[in-house]
Write a structure and sequence with these properties.
The chain is α/β, with parallel strands linked by helices. About 35% of the residues lie in helices and about 20% in strands. The protein has 18 helices and 21 strands. It has a 6-stranded parallel sheet with strand order 2-1-3-4-5-6, with helices on both faces. Strands 17-18-19-21-20 form a 5-stranded mixed beta barrel. A hairpin with a 3-residue loop joins β20 and β21. Bound molecules: S-adenosyl-L-homocysteine, iron/sulfur cluster and FE3-S4 cluster. FE3-S4 cluster binds next to α1 and α8.
């Protein structure tokens, strides 16, 4: 049986793509390995959103040069967004790479690997660029890869990502995603519902719907249009599903019907990730985000009106072209005012091929970007900590995801590690089963996506449990499972 090693960077889309590629390869007889040295095939599922993510992949490829020299039959592949972005350049920079496949061609990976193994030489399969054909041709060349799901392939069998949209048409000037993921396409609702029903039937309790601007979801079929809120209502009916999340939202498409759906449908997570990117109109305009800061504020106020308890999170880019101290101060102000549960903060990284790279100089020095990044992060961290304090003494419902990071590090449990968003290995690598009687530190999430750490039993992984919170920092709530007594003690307590 050929052994496969796969490493994944980037966003949740890539995590899902890796899961599906691995599932397809397992069907062809591959088995997974956690080490590159005994792997017959090594795949990197890559990201192009910042330069750093690309350079890390080239370094990883560099480390494999000798291994390939010693064993020329080892197949090395680069798949995903960087494959689409760099295409032949990958072969030029790492001539020992055998396979380059863009995200719109992932269905071809198993056949291409067979061809390479049969001696056909290096293979390149990418989709059309955004200027390389008619809209129809380009759209068709970016195929959504959504084969049948296999529960054993997921980081946890009770949680799953479900793609509802591919690509992006917003063309924010800093962003490479529309080039590498192609035109925005919403998946037909009946496909999404069928997949969600199958997942629920296999014991999946939580699904996270994925799209670059997920709330722009809209599917037209003749006269009938399915909006995001309609899709959510239909998914809500599926027995067995207990939580539904969706990421990432585009501020301009946060319509009232969607907010009403989140408010009225109990299975919907009270959590909205709506990146602002900047607090300055000047910068937003250069970014071509399509809204003013006044409009963002209005949208944010509407979320607070409809969903006072919801956790709202954001992304920010600091040091975008021409960003002044005043512009940056406006981002700080927005963070203070909106009281985000948390924000992901990135230093601007110029991406060749984007409008931003063509139109504006990357003129904010690296040290200024770094300082602004740290400053905004410090403001956000303080707010995140304040935001978690009201949970002290409260009881929350936690979906238990697995052992906490520290339990994993100490190796106390022998349980499969919980996967994080940046890096994932599909399960089945470490293989040891949980030890049922041990008390371990577990981690899970609330309905509003807050991380909760508590002591529990490995058997509780996958359950939704009541947890009482006794401590909190910026990123984590600490609690204890509430045990339900049905005996004389309860009787005496309540009388
Ligand atoms: N579709 C999502 C996010 C896409 S990329 C959205 O529209 O919000 C995830 C985040 O990376 C973005 O929200 C942005 O904050 C950041 N990002 C994108 N391009 C970047 C660049 N060139 N440099 C730095 N950060 C970038
Ligand atoms: Fe990139 Fe903007 Fe599309 Fe998000 S909305 S993927 S930031 S172009
Ligand atoms: Fe990166 Fe591609 Fe996602 S560029 S952020 S992996 S869509």
């Amino acid at each position: 049986m050929p052994k496969l090693y796969i490493e994944t960077v980037g966003c949740q889309m890539n995590v899902l793509d890796s899961e599906l590629v691995v599932a397809a390869l397992r069907q062809r007889g591959y088995e997974l390995t956690g080490s590159t040295s005994d792997a017959d095939t090594i795949l990197f599922n890559t990201c192009s959103v910042r330069e750093h993510a690309e350079e890390k992949i080239y370094s990883a490829l560099g480390r494999l040069k000798n291994a390939k020299r010693q064993n020329p039959h080892k197949i090395i592949g680069v798949i995903g967004c960087m494959a689409q972005n760099h295409q032949r350049t990958v072969f030029e920079r790492a001539p020992y790479v055998d396979l380059v496949v863009g995200p719109g061609q992932l269905h071809q990976v198993p056949d291409l690997l067979e061809k390479i193994a049969a001696g056909a030489g290096p293979q390149l399969e990418v989709s059309l660029g955004r200027k390389d054909g008619s809209r129809d041709e380009i759209t068709r060349s970016h195929e959504s890869f959504d084969p049948l799901r296999d529960p054993t392939m997921r980081p946890t069998p009770f949680q799953a990502y479900v793609r509802i949209q591919i690509g992006c048409d917003k063309f924010c000037t800093y962003c490479i995603v529309p080039s590498v993921r192609g035109p925005e396409q919403s998946r037909p609702p009946q496909h999404i519902l069928a997949e969600a029903r199958q997942l629920a039937a296999e014991g999946c309790k939580e699904i996270t719907l994925l799209g670059q601007t997920v709330n722009s979801y809209r599917y037209r079929d003749g006269e009938r249009t399915t909006r995001m809120s309609d899709l959510l209502a239909a998914l809500h009916e599926i027995d067995g599903l207990e939580r539904i999340k969706f990421v990432t939202n585009y501020p301009k498409d946060m319509t009232d019907d969607l907010l009403a759906a989140v408010r009225d449908l109990p299975k919907l997570a009270k959590y909205l990730h709506v990146p602002a990117q900047s607090g300055s109109n000047r910068v937003l305009q250069r970014m071509k985000r399509g809204y003013t800061i006044e409009e963002y504020r209005e949208m944010h106020a509407r979320i607070r009106d409809w969903l006072p308890e919801a956790a709202v999170t954001s992304d920010f880019i600091v040091g975008f072209c021409g960003e002044t101290d005043e512009d940056f101060e406006e981002s700080c102000e927005l963070v203070r005012e909106c009281h985000f549960k948390n924000s992901f903060i990135f230093k601007y990284s110029q991406r060749p091929g984007t409008k931003g790279a063509e139109l504006y100089a990357d003129d904010v020095p690296e040290d200024v970007k770094r300082r602004r990044n740290n400053e905004l992060l410090a403001i956000q961290n303080q707010i995140s900590e304040e935001d978690n304090q009201p949970f002290l003494g409260r009881q929350v419902e936690v979906l238990v995801e697995g052992p906490s990071k520290s339990a994993e590090r100490s190796g106390a449990t022998g349980i499969l590690p919980v996967q994080n968003r940046e890096q994932t290995q599909p399960p089945g690598l470490t293989g040891k089963m949980p030890v049922a009687h041990e008390t371990v530190q577990l981690v899970g999430r609330t309905m509003c996506d807050r991380i909760v750490v508590f002591d529990g039993n490995p058997r509780q992984i996958g359950q939704i449990l009541p947890v009482s919170i006794y401590d909190a920092n910026a990123h984590t709530l600490f609690g204890a499972v509430v045990t339900q007594h049905v005996g004389p003690e309860l009787f005496t307590l309540t009388t």
